[in-house]
Amino acid sequence: MSRWICRCLVLVLAVATTHAGAQDQAPSAAATLEAVGTRGWFTVRGPFATFDPTHPSVGIWVPRKTGKAPVIVYAHGGVVQYALHGETRNNRNVFFYGGSNGGRVILYTGSAIPDKRIRGIISEARAATGLELGDYDISSVVSFGGLDTWAGKSPTDFVWTRTCPSSPVSIKNWVDERQQAGRPVEFILYENAGHLLFDGPLEEVTVKRGDKIAFTAFKGAAEGVLDLYERNVREFVMRHVVA
Question: Which structural domains are found in the chain, ordered by start?
Fold first, then answer.
């Protein structure tokens, strides 16, 4: 994931941030990972360092149309307001990016946060259930690995065709409905890829909930697939950024 982050504009994390000097705090003040219950769930407690786009470890790509880097908001949260204000970034060009559960949340925000400065939504491996999705007119791309059966019940229980009582409309049907209504929504399947293309090489993994096996599925992407995905994301941003 870090490889993609370093190539993408200004990435704003949807987590709590502290004051500008947070990165210099003593280790005792750093965020820690704590278990929640006994089923393998964790939460993060403590302060997070403020993202510093000028740090030498950060590579920022600026499209030719604009002098300042657009903002990609990763996942969701009140950070949207942070992205829409400030002079150090091009807040006339805001893009939402989310994977898995975050991929569904950002599609929800398309109708929940009306703001013309939001130029595009990039949803990858979007969860089959969650917030009810509405209608909007923001350019969007919904992508999946062709082997993505994450949390499924069988090898053919693909996330994009999955329905459940709380979400009776599948992701693919939602996209089809938007396209039939003339909305600018793309749907892309990547062969030889599983859940979350940026999550390392393609491999089959077994996921446990506590001591029990919950499901087995593919994650990551085969060689060359992630490069194609990154190229498509950059081209999507370049098509929709404004000067």
Answer: 2-240 (3.40.50)
C-alpha to C-alpha distance for 213 and 57, rounded to whole angstroms:
38
Alpha-carbon distance of 30 to 160, in angstroms, equals 38
**What residues does 95 pair with on adjacent strands?**
72, 120
Are 9 and 237 contacting, i.e. CB atoms less than 8 angstroms apart? yes
Could you tell me the end-to-end alpha-carbon distance of the chain, in angstroms, rounded to an integer? 28
Report the 10 Å Cβ neighbour count for 243. Answer: 10
Residues 74-100 have a mean pLDDT of: 72
The span from the CA of 8 to the CA of 60, in Å, is 6
Dist. CA 22–CA 49, nearest whole Å: 5
- Global pTM value: 0.73
| Partners of residue 121 on adjacent β-strands | 96, 140
